[in-house]
Amino acid sequence: MIINAGICGNMGKVHRVSRNPKNIQLLILDVDGVLTDGSLILGSDNQEYKLFNSKDGAAIKWWLRSGRQMAWISGRESPAVLHRAQQLGVQHVYQRILEKLSVYSRLLEELAIPENKTAYIGDDLVDLPIMSRCGFAISVADAMDEIRTEADLITERPGGRGAVAEAVRFLLQAAGDWETVMARYSQEVG
Questions:
Q1: How many whole angstroms from its chain centre is CA 64?
Q2: d(C-alpha 163, C-alpha 147), whole Å
Q3: SS3 of residue 96 by DSSP
Q4: Which parts of the chain have pLDDT scores under 50?
Q5: What pLDDT does residue 73 have?
Q6: Counting beta carbons within 10 angstroms of the beta carbon of residue 31, is it exposed (0 to 12), middle (13 to 18) or buried (19 or more)?
């Protein structure tokens, strides 16, 4: 498969082209290290705080408005993750999942989406089993070497710093749907 250079623009590096990014219907994200920079902020009130990137949040809304599905699978559990997912309209959130592959398989069955129409964004070894099976694997820039080796696309931006926005834009461009996103905002301006 050859990917049009225009799709990539100034975004991440296409690592390999063996899998097709054009028909992705389900985008699955790890949380810590992908939606956040991986930092854990622990308050004196015993609460855990997380920093989410607003550009990633906007891109998640673009993805969902395009009629596609999204899921988050995290090894940790945090009320902040559920709160952010609710703000963005993400309906499939799984926390305290140390073995992510079984959740991935159940999710595909529940949504009736074939594996070749899934993409996964990861950064750590726990993400490797899904990345090796999904339709299109994406690594954030600051992921472990083993994750970047498995990736079809490596973002230029690190986790928690716009990597998800970069990946969503890439996937929507690959599907030919980026102009639809842009048209919505052009209408609001014009």
A1: 12
A2: 15
A3: coil
A4: 1-10, 190
A5: 97
A6: buried
Geometric angle at alpha carbon 136, from 135 and 140, rounded to 5°: 150
Using DSSP bridges, classify how beta strands 48-49 and 41-42 pair: parallel, antiparallel or unpaired.
antiparallel
Residue 126 CA neighbour count, 13 Å, CB half: 18
Q: Map tokens 């600051």 to a residue.
A: 142
pLDDT for the residue 58: 95
Q: Which of 129, 175, 169 is nearest to 30 (CA)?
A: 129
Measured at the CA of 80, the angle between CA 118 and CA 121, to 5 degrees, comes to 20
pLDDT given for residue 14 in this prediction: 58
- Rg of the chain in Å (alpha carbons): 16
Tell me the domains of the chain and their CATH numbers.
11-189 (3.40.50.1000)
- Sequential DSSP letters for 105-161: HHHHHHHT--GGGEEEEE-SGGGHHHHHHSSEEEE-TTS-HHHHHH-SEE-SSPTTT
- CA dist 100 and 75 (Å) reads 8
Q: Which of 131, 161, 180 lies closest to 57 in space, CA to CA?
A: 161
Q: Are 164 and 53 in contact (CB under 8 A)?
A: yes
Using CA atoms, how far residue 70 sits from 5, 39, 88, in Å, is 26, 23, 11
**Strand bridging mode 41-42 / 26-29:** unpaired
**Tokens read off for 24:** 């992705």
Half-sphere exposure of 31 (CA within 13 A, CB side): 29
